[in-house]
Write a structure and sequence with these properties.
3-stranded antiparallel sheet, 7-stranded antiparallel sheet, 228 residues, 30% strand
Length: 228
């Protein structure tokens, strides 16, 4: 079974202050970020966030406190994707393994063979709106005995649309909820190995808007460097 990581206050308040100040001061913008997008299978009808590149190539970037600590704790890594995510509405179930052609091309440019599978996605919360309950849910597919199904936890997971339930598509029945990690502090570390199915949690009765960010977090994807 793939590993799930949760470490409270992985980064100190001072370290998080430095990271937030760096991004606030530099004002990098969203670049070519896709932003929130249509998702007709969800009750909300859309999902997603904007991204600001983490700019790992800048040596003075205080985010290197995080990357260095991750390598100390989990092994030598090749970081291939990193951003500050400006979150507007929950993503439904997915994994983050690089299937897209542009991602594979980027990996190849870094000398990472597509056959290398050992890697992680790490999140570090930087801020969230007062009253919002941020978290990450993890799933098993096929469902594991003794675990609730996705559709049994709709009060805290992104709700599927009415049409979705009319057709009873398999998506809401093939996932069981393995674990829900509630974010507790700015600076916590949430992580998971490649191929781990997951989604954002949902805060009941929250009014999501394409014009309003509800949380921000650092997101870093890496592969374990097996050559060293």
């Amino acid at each position: 079974m793939t590993e799930i990581v949760f470490k409270e206050k992985y980064l100190s308040s001072e370290e998080m202050h430095n990271i937030n100040m760096f991004f606030d001061t530099m004002n990098f913008g969203y670049g070519s970020s896709k932003g929130p997008y249509k998702a007709g299978w969800l009750e909300l009808g859309w999902q997603g966030c904007w991204d600001t590149s983490a700019r790992l190539h800048i040596e003075s970037n205080p985010i290197h406190v995080l990357t260095e600590r991750l390598q100390k704790d989990f092994g030598k890594m090749i970081f291939w994707r990193a951003s500050l995510r400006h979150f507007h509405a929950p993503f439904d179930v997915h994994d983050d393994y690089p299937y897209k052609e542009r991602d594979i091309e980027k990996l190849e440019s870094l000398g990472i063979k597509h056959s290398i599978t050992k890697g992680y996605t790490f999140l570090v919360p930087t801020w969230w709106e007062k009253g919002y309950n941020p978290g990450t849910a993890f799933f098993n597919a096929p469902p594991k005995d003794g675990e609730p199904l996705y559709e049994d936890c709709q009060e805290v997971l992104p709700k599927f649309s009415e049409q979705h339930y009319k057709t009873r598509e398999l998506k809401n029945r093939i996932f069981s909820v393995r674990r829900i990690v509630d974010w507790k502090n700015v600076g916590d570390l949430v992580g998971w190995e490649n191929y781990t199915l997951h989604c954002s949690t949902h805060t009941p009765n929250w009014e999501y808007s394409r014009d309003k960010v509800v949380k921000r977090f650092l997101s870093i994807d890496c592969f374990i460097d097996t050559k060293n």
